[in-house]
């Protein structure tokens, strides 16, 4: 909140005159406010306490909506200007300048969103689940698996604890966080805040979604995380007040290298990366376990990805402890019949792993979700369908795909800036932190609500 600068000293008479005027104005405002509150109480609210909170919530949310509309106009203006620019170098320059200009606006939008959510928490927020013992593993009663959220809260500073409280209210026991460098003070802060809330972290270790050129540098990052945050790690020794059983037991090695959307698909190079990284990380912490990314589509490079890894490294089974899969199904339900490109392809991936003697490896779904973007019905769903798909997914994991050990829903929050941008609307809470139906669906799945 911005504070007004202190005013210059005034003569006593002027102060008395000003004080009288201010008192009169204050009485008028109070009378009008009292009348408004009484009217609202008669029309809408069941209690006087709710009547007092409603105007405050409405004002906070109006400020948030105004800021959101302003940012939307800025985004549209930038995109129109970029579309008129033919030079790739000039578009890159414009994009960088735009990011710099909008960074402060985005930060303010998030602050206003949190203020709006706090003001109307009694109306739209969810109650916290009953507390559980520190370190108690959350294995959902409905699914029999670990349930988590892709969060990306690293580096959020003071915003982090509030957001972690929201995740904790959903009953999840894990959050997935993306890190691109060796641990630092911000990393320690996130682990501290998460552990204080009984949350474990699954670190996704990568840099720019592209397999690095320097294997040695990347191996140092993975080994440093395993050494510091793995079971019995340095971080837990430095914080005896925390429950050490909340250590990161698993570490995810890179994100979707089987897809050409980040760069060339190079299974032999990724196998070489594993050979360089995993032994060193295990030496840093023998108790740490490592997940590698897999997929199995009906055709294309993702169809042969698993087999290609084994062709490049016949001893691959000794370099990982489990797999991480992202079985998105677009705007289709997870049990859509005859949908080999949807969620059901996890069975094909498992079959391929069994063929290579890896059927006993842990099988984690570290991303899955449905976007609720309003401008692209070909890829997006309604908020009600998002929640229904999540609950159907939980049922499938419980009854049909019993080999699944963990599910991380993607994503905690959506920024909701561009209606046709699917990535902006995967969140199960809105940009102002108010819950979607999927928020409550997840609480039911985890047994928190």
Structural notes for this entry:
With 449 residues, this protein is of the alpha/beta class. The protein folds into two domains: 48-124; 146-446, Glycosidases (TIM Barrel, Alpha-Beta Barrel). It contains 13 helices and eight strands. Strands 1-2-3-4-5-6-7-8 form an eight-stranded parallel barrel. Helix 7 (215-229) packs parallel to helix 9 (267-284) and helix 12 (383-399) runs parallel beside helix 13 (437-446). Mean pLDDT is 81; it is low at 1-54 and 121-143.
Please specify the SSE layout and strand pairing.
Blueprint: H1 12-43, H2 48-84, H3 88-119, H4 121-124, E1 146-150, H5 159-169, E2 174-179, H6 185-196, E3 200-205, H7 215-229, H8 234-238, E4 250-253, H9 267-284, E5 289-293, H10 301-312, E6 322-325, H11 345-355, E7 362-368, H12 383-399, E8 406-409, H13 437-446
Parallel strand pairs: 1-2, 1-8, 2-3, 3-4, 4-5, 5-6, 6-7, 7-8
């Amino acid at each position: 909140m911005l504070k007004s600068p202190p005013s210059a000293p005034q003569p006593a008479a002027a102060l008395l005159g000003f004080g009288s005027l201010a008192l009169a104005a204050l009485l008028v405002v109070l009378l009008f406010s009292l009348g408004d509150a009484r009217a609202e109480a008669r029309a809408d609210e069941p209690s006087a306490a709710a009547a007092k909170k409603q105007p405050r919530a409405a004002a906070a949310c109006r400020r948030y909506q105004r800021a959101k509309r302003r940012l939307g106009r800025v985004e549209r203006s930038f995109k129109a200007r970029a579309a008129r620019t033919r030079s790739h170098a000039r578009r890159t320059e414009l994009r960088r300048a735009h990011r710099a200009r909008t960074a402060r606006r985005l930060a303010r939008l998030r602050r206003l969103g949190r203020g709006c959510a706090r003001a109307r928490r009694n109306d739209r927020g969810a109650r916290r689940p009953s507390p559980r013992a520190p370190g108690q593993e959350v294995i959902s009663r409905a699914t029999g698996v670990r349930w988590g959220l892709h969060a990306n809260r690293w580096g959020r500073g003071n915003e982090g604890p509030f957001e972690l409280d929201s995740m904790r209210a959903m009953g999840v026991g894990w959050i997935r966080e993306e890190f691109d460098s060796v641990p630092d003070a911000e990393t320690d802060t996130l682990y501290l805040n998460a552990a204080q809330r009984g949350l474990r972290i699954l670190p996704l270790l990568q840099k720019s979604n592209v397999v690095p050129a320097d294997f040695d540098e990347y191996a140092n990052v993975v080994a440093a995380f395993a050494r510091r945050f793995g079971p019995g790690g340095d971080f837990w020794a430095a914080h005896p007040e925390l429950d050490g059983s909340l250590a990161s037991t698993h570490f995810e090695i890179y994100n979707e290298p089987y897809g050409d959307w980040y760069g060339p698909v190079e299974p032999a190079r990724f196998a070489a990366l594993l050979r360089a990284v995993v032994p060193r990380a295990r030496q840093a912490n023998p108790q740490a376990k490592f997940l590698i990314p897999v997929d199995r589509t009906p055709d294309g490079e993702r169809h042969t990805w698993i087999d290609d890894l084994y062709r490049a490294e016949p001893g691959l089974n000794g370099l990982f402890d489990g797999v991480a899969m992202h079985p998105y199904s677009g705007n289709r339900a997870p049990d859509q019949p005859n949908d080999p490109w949807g969620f059901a392809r996890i069975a094909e991936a498992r079959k391929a792993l069994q063929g290579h003697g890896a059927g006993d490896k842990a099988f984690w779904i570290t991303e899955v979700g449905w976007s609720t973007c309003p401008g692209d019905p070909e890829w997006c769903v309604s908020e009600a369908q998002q929640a229904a798909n999540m609950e159907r997914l939980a049922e499938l994991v419980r009854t049909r795909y019993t080999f699944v050990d963990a599910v991380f829903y993607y994503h905690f929050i959506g920024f909701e800036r561009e209606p046709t941008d699917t990535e902006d609307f995967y969140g199960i809470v809105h940009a102002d932190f108010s819950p979607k139906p999927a928020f409550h669906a997840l609480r039911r799945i985890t047994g928190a609500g």
